[in-house]
Amino acid sequence: MPTANQFEVEVKTLLGSREAAEEFVVKLKLNDSNLKLSGQSNQLNHYFDEAGDTEKLPDAIGGFLSDGDLAAFKEIIDQSKSFALRTRDADGTILLVIKAAKGEGDNQHALERLEGEYETTASDIDTIDKAIQSAGYDFLSKWSRNRIEYSYKGFNVTIDKNAGYGYVAEIEKVVPDSTQAEQARDEILAELKTLEVEELSQERVGRMFEHYNEHWPEYYQTEKTFTVE
Fold first, then answer.
1. Domains of the chain, each with CATH number or no CATH
2. Angle in degrees, 0-180, between the axes of helices 18-31 and 181-195, rounded to the nearest 10
3. H helix or E strand, kind and range, residue 152
């Protein structure tokens, strides 16, 4: 995952079941003898709406970030008309994540995004959440997932067991500037063909996301899943 202001190019594929996820890992191993497990975590992810006061936000969260990370965070805000804000508890590490779409697409799911991910000094996720809420932002939804990460042929590959969605894989490449984003996306789509999986369309992702946001208390920190075509 990117840790500074970089462009993240990613494509998702819906695996659904545990069996399909296990088959996907087999394909990764077959296609890359140097496949490496790069991370594994249990996560809580809290998504915020866009109704807060942008000018108050840096002061509200600034005490939890290093000077460099706060400057990088402000840079994304200054460059973006809108952005998606999240907090994350990854096995006790509390992160602040901001994503802003490049070109078409929404901030949550655009294929090319400017992203900042910053480790905070907050003792728990509720502490950083309250700071964000003090700037007028409220929860959009709360998510829980188990994530496994792989280093694969120069890509970052994650397999998430999401409450609500089931198993979803994502192939991602991080590039230093937007001029390389189109080439990175072409490389990812070619790799999907090699792995014999299909891209999860932005339209379907949007429908799934909308359904989850409307019903998230039914799924958060449970094993329940749903299907939206």
1. 6-218 (2.40.320.10)
2. 110
3. strand 139-152
DSSP structural state of residue 221: T
Find out whether 86 and 47 touch, Cβ atoms under 8 Å. yes
Rounded to 5 degrees, φ, ψ at 24 are: -65, -40
**The residue count for the chain:** 229
Distance of CA 164 to the CA centre of its chain: 16
Q: Which residues of the chain have pLDDT under 70?
A: 1-6, 101-113
Long-range contacts of 100-106 (CB under 8 A, 24+ apart): 100/76, 102/7, 102/178, 102/181, 105/202, 106/206
pLDDT tens for 54-84 read 999 999 999 999 999 999 999 988 888 789 9
Q: Which helix (H) or strand (E) holds 6?
A: strand 6-16
Beta bridge pairs of residue 146? 42, 161
Which string of DSSP letters, residue by residue, matches 180-212? GHHHHHHHHHHHHHHHT--PPPHHHHHHHHHHH
Whether this model's pTM surpasses 0.85: no
